[in-house]
Amino acid sequence: MEFKPTIQGTMIYVTMACWILAVIGSFIRRTGLSGILFFVGFLIAVVAWVYRWIHVQHVPMQNLFEVFLTLGMLIWPIWLFSRRVLGIRSFVTDILIGLIVLYPAGFSFHAEPQRLPPALQSWLFAPHVAVYMLSYVLMARAAVQAGAVLWYRFLEMPEVLSVEAERAAYQLSRIGFPLLTLGLLLGSVWGQRAWGDYWGWDPKELWSLASWLVYIGYFHFRYMYGTRYPRINSIWVLAGLAFIIITLLWVNLSRIFPGLHNYAT
Questions:
Q1: Residue 255 φ/ψ, nearest 5 degrees
Q2: What HEC string does the chain produce?
Q3: Which of 67, 133, 201, 209 sits in a 20 to 30 Å window from 77, CA-based?
Q4: Cβ atoms within 10 A of the Cβ of 79, count?
Q5: How far apart are CA 98 and CA 116, in angstroms?
Q6: Region 102-127: what's the mean pLDDT?
Q7: Closest Cα to residue 76, out of 141, 10, 11?
Q8: How far is CA 265 from CA 22, 67, 242, in A?
Q9: Is 215:240 a contact under the CB 8 Å cutoff?
């Protein structure tokens, strides 16, 4: 564990504190105050992200510290979109996702500024990483809904809860998947410009493709069988998130299978 007694670290910790208080407020039925605390935490996360941009003088999505900082910043707007557009209400679980993704930024990964490698000095850097970050948050939220399906069925709770959760997982995955696809395509174009080849069989490229194929399998299975097998649908979504976690963490941190993307450590 690495505590960060810096301005950057303090903003991360204050964001997390606001969100913890928001969760507590939700449990004691102070929903208005909880909503304000959630939003205030988001504003502080935005300031932390902009501060990092100014500090390192490039879009802060280069290494895992910056990636998790970005993921944390995206939680509130995606929660708001899901609530207003999709009608998905998952206030507490979304805050918990935010706390989970901010924890590595606050306590796990080094925050020392790094120069942007020549391979990343491209206009494709920001959109390629940004669409992946958006898709990852959406898929994480979909996985939470999928996990709720299994939990509701295990407890034999009313069927309507499982149906709503399964539908929410599908809606979120359906939005996240095009972003996942766009990230894969942008990465291919970028690879050709940076390394002279659209596909290099790099470990991260392979796991990114594997993640994409898992969701292809999920959509195909759901198209064939609809909601007849909600447990299997949910397992597909959870497997997709597992592959994303491998792509994001294990591939970047592994020293056994080094690749062209290991600068993300």
A1: -105, -5
A2: CCCCCCHHHHHHHHHHHHHHHHHHHHHCCCHHHHHHHHHHHHHHHHHHHHHHHHHHCCCCCCCHHHHHHHHHHHHHHHHHHHHHHHCCCCHHHHHHHHHHHHHHHHHHCCCCCCCCCHHHCCCCHHHHHHHHHHHHHHHHHHHHHHHHHHHHHHCCCCHHHHHHHHHHHHHHHHHHHHHHHHHHHHHHHHHHHHHCCCCCCCHHHHHHHHHHHHHHHHHHHHHHHCCCCHHHHHHHHHHHHHHHHHHHHHHHHCCCCCCCCHHHC
A3: 209
A4: 23
A5: 27
A6: 87
A7: 141
A8: 32, 10, 19
A9: yes
pLDDT greater than 70 at residue 176? yes
Q: Range with the lowest mean pLDDT among 32-46, 64-78, 118-132?
A: 118-132
> Taking the C-alpha atoms of 14, 19, 23 and 29 in order, what is their torsion angle to the nearest 10 degrees?
90
Query: Nearest CA to 10 among 153, 85, 106?
Result: 106
Token representation of residue 7: 């301005």
Q: Which residues contact 224 (CB under 8 A, 6 or more apart)?
A: none
Q: Which residues of 188-212 are buried (b: 16+ CB within 10 A; e: fewer)?
A: bebbeebeeeeebebbbbbbbeebb
**At a CB cut-off of 8 Å and minimum separation 6, what does 212 contact?**
180, 181, 184
Q: Please give the backbone phi and psi of residue 85, each rounded to the nearest 5 degrees, phi first.
A: -95, -45
Asked whether the beta carbons of 146 and 240 are under 8 A apart, the reply is no
pTM of the complete model: 0.92
